[in-house]
Amino acid sequence: MPINAHPDYLAAEKEYLEADTSKDKIEKLKKMISLAPSHKGAENLRAQLKTRLKKLQQQLEKNKKTGKSSKIGIKKEEMQAVLIGNSNSGKSTLLAFLTNASPRISATTFTTNEPVIGMMNYQGANIQLIENPGIDSEYYDRGIANTADTLLILINNLNCLPEIEKKLEKAKGKKIIVFTKSDLLTNEEKRKISATLSSKKYNFVIISTISKKGIEELKEKLLNSFEKIRVYTKEPGKEKSLKPIILELNSTVKEVAEKILHGFSKNIRETKIWGPSSKFSGQKVGLKHKLKDLDVVEFKTR
Fold first, then answer.
1. Inter-residue long-range contacts of 26-33, CB under 8 Å, 24+ positions, other chains counted
2. CATH number listed for the domain at residues 228-301
3. Which residues pair with 125 in a beta bridge?
4. C-alpha to C-alpha distance for 33 and 52, rounded to whole angstroms
5. Coil, strand or helix: which one is 198?
6. What CA dihedral angle connects 173, 175, 176 and 181, to 10 degrees?
7. For 219-232, what is each residue's pLDDT tens digit?
8. CATH code linked to domain 80-225
9. I want to staple 247 with a disulfide (CB 3.0 to 4.6 A). Which of 59, 201, 251, 299 is the partner?
10. Annotated domain spans of the chain
11. Selection from 4, 13, 234 nearest residue 136 by Cα
12. 8 A C-beta contact, residue 240 and residue 232
């Protein structure tokens, strides 16, 4: 926010940040430039706005030539979490730490200008992680944030949390506050942060990708946030599958069979289960039996 900015400029800035398309952003950015303070102290601001406008215009022209939309399409996996936060909050570093993705990491602002996708495997489950560009930048994608199953809200300052939450009012997913860069904090500072977040009943974790503290807790919270179960299958006389089937809570044996192959449940002659929902190992059950996390199901067909 510029010093001595006129309310009309601040209103134009708000419209710009809420714009969905490159065309709309260009229009709002031009309005911001026309309303920007003209005094000498705002020279850098005006230069930054003009540079940003030039980049947006170039990107829009490029998209027109290639026929591409200004929005990037992302196939949503069974468990999807989006990393949200201001620029330089540690999103790219955390994504690279947790997944196979290689985002650009820099101390400069707005390094990420489009969503970056990675996949994290934890306790047999594949979780799609998406780094959304900074919520304080023109590249931020509200659509991805609003439809995600879980939001990882990265902060390194408690003061920025209320403003971020205002921009997430339409988001439907579970929210986990991730306080980053804890290796730069004293134990007393971490205690105060924890006490503040606890008093406001946030689901949170304090982490450091340098010391790795809090990382396992974050992974556990993330997996639990989806409220799904992992069910393994096996063939008679063989070991269980390496990759589980992901299902909603209270799913039945029939739903496992149908997920393997549509119509498969009609061919099942006998089902045995091992795990939390069984009374004993190898218990025979019917198709309506409700399963629990980490159950193993064996099918015999006709």
1. 26/53, 26/56, 26/57, 26/60, 29/53, 29/56, 29/138
2. 3.10.20.30
3. 122
4. 11
5. helix
6. 100
7. 999 999 999 999 99
8. 3.40.50.300
9. 251
10. 7-66, 80-225, 228-301
11. 13
12. yes
